[in-house]
Amino acid sequence: MEAFDPDRKEVIQRAKNAGLELMITVGSSLESSIKAIELSEQYDFIYASAGVHPHDAADFSDDIYIKLKELSKKRKVVAIGETGLDYYYDNSPREAQKEVFGKHLQLSKETGLPVIIHSREAEQDTMRILRESDIGNGVLHCFSGNMEMAEEVMSMGLYISIAGPVTFKKSKQLKEIARSIPDDYLLVETDSPYLSPEPFRGRRNEPSYIQNTIKHIAELRGISYEDLARITTLNAKRLFRIGSIAEKPEITYRIRDSLYLNITNRCTNKCSFCVKFHTDYVKGHRLRLDREPTEDEIKKEIGDPSRYNEIVFCGYGEPLQRLDFVRNVSAWIKEHGGRVRINTNGHANLIHKRDITPELKGIVDSISISLGAQDKDTYNRICRPAVENAYDGIIQFIRQSRKFIPDVRLTVVDLEGVDIEKCEKIAEELNVRLEVRKFNVVG
Ligand code: SF4
Fold first, then answer.
1. HSE toward the beta carbon, residue 16, CA cutoff 13 A
2. What is the set of domains in the chain, with CATH numbers?
3. 210-221 and 172-180 helices, crossing angle to 10°
4. What's 232's DSSP letter?
5. N or C: which end of the chain has fewer CB within 10 A?
6. Global confidence as pTM
7. Residue 382 CA to ligand 1 centre (angstroms)
8. Nearest CA owner, ligand 1 atom 6
């Protein structure tokens, strides 16, 4: 765009210096799509999209469609758009906007490239057209809709991209959306040269300012800048099929100031809400193991345990399936000044056919036990345990854990059918704290 004519190179360098790994420069007309592609061909980390903005829908023609299709075959073109509807400016007649939007969706389907969708004050028509097109590959850019729209967008398999306005004081609805949508659907963007985040509001925006938007959203979500950067980078790579994605599973991974240990995929439950049944990633970390790590491998990756707030046995399975491993590594962590927590489904005594809780004495500081539900039937429906009498076994395991572990907490996920009040009562009777986790928020 012209706004960058005086200092484009410096702007790109500043983005690199800010830690941006990859960038997509977005076409909004035939001419700007060609320019975007030219720019992408000069830098290995820049990619382009090809499309015509709804503002220019009135000038769209079959000839432009054919040209966009040609451009979409270029190596650096990774998306179709920006396209969509803009009823705020109404620069083109609405009928033309709708028709051209439909054509871009058709092009996205023909090429297999994801579509970048603009929707401003046009929610109803945008959603109707998306529903009719059955498109499941793309992103709602600079999202400005409500939570209901966000939920429907995600149910279609589309991503939601948040830009600078989330940092504005009055953007309450957008902040709520940025706080609550699941990791797997979240992207961030600049929309440069528009929509600068605070404290640059009103000035020309540039890619390096994405740091401010990320920082703000990370605070809203209670995670670190690095966590959010990793999550959104992974999502962008997967959606636009750019860059490289780590193939190797991670046996340790960091979230905030804690280190999580991923030691097994095995589990005696098949919970309906379990993240591992729909993705290999948690907070941008690839967790599905191809083999279980050894004690030496884990210790080597932990390094100095005292560097972390807490070291948590968690991952993609039930850690106490590997009881000896947990005991040995926990003892080693404690010897080296670390703090240990175990996240467990509470089946350990049923798995090992004895009371294992005394074996955790002195080597485990904290244990989070998944209560799952307020009664047996609901638990069996949601968690589908492979062990007999799982629910009674969990209650017994909680009682025993209290004798040997200083901090015992219960967790439940706020799913349909889970009675939080009754779960709170159970926790109270057992004299432990209950933590309610939101569905689809992991880590
Ligand atoms: S207990 Fe945990 S790891 Fe096992 S299925 Fe349930 S959520 Fe997944």
1. 10
2. 2-240 (3.20.20.140), 252-437 (3.20.20.70)
3. 70
4. H
5. N
6. 0.82
7. 11
8. 271
